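Q: Predict the assembly, please.
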Amino acid sequence: MNKIIKYVFYDIIRNKIVLAYTLFLLLLSFGLFNLGGSPDKGILSLLNLVLLTVPLISIVFATTHFYNSYEFMELLVAQPINRKKIFMSEYLGVACSLSGAFILGVGVPMLIFGASITGLYLLLTGVFITFIFVALAFLASVITRDKAKGIGIALLLWFYFALIYDGIVLFILYAFADYPLESATLAMTALNPVDLGRIIVLLNLDVSALMGYTGALYKSILGSLWGIGLAFGLMLVWAVVPLASSGRIFSKRDL
Amino acid sequence: MKDPTKQIFILAYVLALMLGSQVAFGTTLKVCPTCPYTSVKEAVASAKPGETVLVEGGVYQEHGIEINKPLTLLGRNNPVIDGNFKGQILTITSDNVTVEGLTLQNIATSYRQDDAAIRVVQRSNVRILNNTILHTYFGIYLQNSDNCVIKGNVVAGQDVTGKNESALGNAIHLWYCDKAVISNNKVSGHRDGIYLEFVKDSEVKDNLSEHNLRYGLHFMFSDRNTYTHNTFRKNGAGVAVMYTRDIRMEYNTFEDNWGAAAYGLLLKDISNSVIHNNTFRRNTTGIYMESSSRLDLQRNDFDRNGWAVRLLSSCTDDVFKFNNFTGNSFDVSTNGDSQLNRFENNYWDKYTGYDLDKDRVGDVPYRPVSLYSMLVERVPPSVMFMRSFMVDLLDSIEKVLPSFIPENLVDEQPLMKKIEHDNDRKLAQVLR
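A: Predicted assembly structure:
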């Protein structure tokens, strides 16, 4: 399995997209930390970009990579290797290289301009989101053999989590404004890993004071180390569930 | 010197100094460990009206000193009067008393009688100057006393984090006192820094009020007062102004009042007042306005606040002119559709319009209320979606095609450049 991971890893590094991704993040982070003035401001502006670009790049890159290495996987399947192992190595290879790029691209500037616990949360959030969206990408690509369709599904998933979901929840909140919605909001944000990551970082920044009663409620739940652990645990579930189901489909499917 | 009476007066004065130096010395009662008087209380009791009690450096363990005749109580070389948590230190029950240069300390919390370091009861023309008051329940407490001066005092309490509001008193507390002057004081570590209730025609200037548990300045039912050049910093909830009219607030700084229930300035039921040239920096809410009418807000700076202005729809006829709004999360938010206030010629850093005719006024109106701030006002839990991309998108769409945000809350003539309040007088005059 290690051998396959290594192979996938080298393959990804050779095609230079990950390198470009690292450079892009590096430039962006350096720029934002320099512009923002205080490291807190830098983290805040970085957060928006991380939550938008990291899922998009992860999901698109992972889907195309999966389809591109289809022949390689077919070759491996012909060997006496467990299919699940092949699938897991592919997943880990892609997810680890992407999150490595993220840690390098965002982590290094963060270390230089102001390492803080909030920065660590941002890094962790980014890594988890990479793992989650690579898993979702693999799910999208095992569902269909058609490459265009697979990328379409992946993009839709990104669109849903990064954009539409918030709109839907805001609409629900608006429609049911007469009811106490604090716990409902909490539950609904837990159903979207992107929101979860955003809130973990926001609660640890100054802006949390603007969040009034709901923010206080969130803080009482997520403010402790235990709560942060719970939130990251939820994100882990978000990675494991699509991964497990896509692994299952992959091992049963007729290739 | 044309005035002969002046010459005579000076001559008489010099003569009096020469002849009466012995007598003049007699009118000063000295208090020190080796003097005839070793306690302030004795000296005050035996002094005659108009005399001076001079307290030399040292520590005096005393409390319950009552000044019931016009005296000057003067401290030299930092004398300390330590109340030892036994009760009030100075009670003034006479007109024309001056207390200067003393350090008063240690007064216990007393729920029944509001013990203070210096209390003035129903008297006028009392001057409290350059004293240091440490670790007290109430610092300076004036009741029914007119024409008093409180100047240059330092009133420092304790670290208020985690304290209960009722366990702390106010640093400077005035109740039914007219024509007071409160200036150059530094107050910290109390419940309210400066508390005024039923205080009319007074002046509060050049004070620094910080790290108080509740308000930096708190006043109610206090008409026709002037507040200038004060700094209010890091207080629990900022400054509260309630049920008052004809106020002038100018050149004050409200900063770092940051917390879930904090604001720079809270205005409730204020009318006919002027708020000019103030700076609001890093407050959760810069100004919170409720039921306030006919206020004139000009040339203020709102910088890096959560909400710069929260203008509830119960406010009417307020005018915002020549203000700078920079780096605020929300510029203006409101809770209703009807808007009877006016915004004119302000600078908004979020303004994206253009100025074709180069008259330094934007050609497109600016709407300072964003869709999201309306949503947050109506559905508080939606604040958790702050910084979500969807929210930014909705705001941008709404800005292009306004349909939800209040139609009338608009700055028709936003300025293109930030106003330098000192240099841009000419521009202001032209626009006016």
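The CA atoms of residues 142 and 250 of chain A lie 6 Å apart. Chain A has a mean pLDDT of 88.
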